[in-house]
Structures
1.
Amino acid sequence: MDNDARHTARCYYAGSTRNLQADLAALGGNAAGVVVWTPQLVAMLKPVAAGRAAEWEELAESPADADAWYVHLLAGDLELARRLGAGLAALPLLCFRRGLRNATPHIHRWQSFVHTQP
């Protein structure tokens, strides 16, 4: 079994209609976008307006009225993601979709995800 988060991310994209390189480029051009690409963790996220789910996957842009972090892709060490997430700009919400399984938008409190204790 391959425990490399990068491999997991590539496999996800192989079964998706999205393009990994295009999404990485879009987030790389977004001043507020976040990309972590390591063997332990792949995380791709950006600030969004939680109430406008139709805009979440437009990765190159983040609205001025963002109130949530949109997690576009997360693979690998969840505890590491939670620790690193505590260092991001404070937004009250966390948004995501369950990829290929379910396109339903999910919205939760950001603080319920991140670790805020040392």
2.
Amino acid sequence: MLASFLLAASLAGLQPKTVSLVPTDDFWIYSFASDTKEPYLRAWGNGGKSVALPGDELEAFSYSYLRFDLAALPKNARIAKATLTLFQASGFGYGAKDAETTPLEVRFVDAKLDEKTWDYGKFAQLKPKAGPEGLLGVGKMDAFSANDKPVAIRIDLLAGKGGFAKILGDKLASGDSVLAVVLTSAFDPSANGRDFIYKVFSKDAPEAALRPTLVLEIE
């Protein structure tokens, strides 16, 4: 009996710890965006690109910024899983195949920005790395047949080449508790219509269940 109890306690101690985080700050990055407290985040690109390169017209691209506080994580945490869940708002103008071939992207940015002091003049501070090497992960949408209600988009942040586990490990080891990422997309509304964009709910969404959530499993 005692041996069984000790074994069960030992196995319980080996179970991953789950930490769920919501953004402390998030906002839409676009030259005509004015309200950082609005309930939506948006992302689109131009000319088949999701990240503006030198010489590109910045106004043709739209990103969204999310900042998370890592203070709840132990300094030596090892991440087994990392999933960011977002919800596409209803009324979107793309199909399931479009979402599969041109998914919503998540990229790391080493920029500690906040809603209160954000202005578009700080765009140059973001510098997300373009291409597959800069991706932390890409979105996988839940199945849908119509656009009349929100659809979940789940992003495995360990699946990309951007090195999320190392980024997080380095931050925790150094005592840096701020993680910032941007949402990007190669969807091009200039070619496909104004609703051909990713428009997901922000932390200011009226329904808590639709707000961004980052779930981390710690070994």
3.
Amino acid sequence: MKKILFGLVASTFSLGAIASTVGISNHPFLMKKHIFNTEYNNYFNDGAGSGLNVMYHQRYNSQLNFDAGFGFTNGDRESRAFVGANMQLIPDYGRQPRVSLKGTAETENLDGDRINTFGVAPTISKGFVMWGNEAFPFISLPLKVSLNENEKEYETSTAVALGMTGRLPFESTRNLVGNIEANFSLRNSYASLVMGVSLPIE
């Protein structure tokens, strides 16, 4: 599992991506858990900078979960706030992968302009046991529309998201869940890397 995480991190630095879209929304957390997530984000172009995302995640039932949060960077992307809802269409069962659809909305301050973005991210994920640890890799196709309030213009973007979630494979951190995500640019996207840690509590 450590080798796979390292490979995902290394590959991100040479490929286009957009910020975390799927995040931990496909991870099979237990019901009635409140999950608090912090993510390190690093944008490599189009407003380059690094910063932190903080997110709250709630699993409503076996098919639906919600998340909301905010983030800050030290580049042109000064701040962002976001919400999302993920609906399971097909469960992860036997050899069958999980298929879900996540709706997203966010607002960010980019170089003095207010950008509002809405999108959907169809996602396929599957749980595996790797070296005695369970991991949940996923692939997604985020489709977004971004509206610039200042310029009164809009732009569409498409990417391929690749990531994974799983409990951290260390004895002292067994209650923590790690996530990593890269969204490979197809159209009008920008490069970033997101890695996070989540704490589920009652």
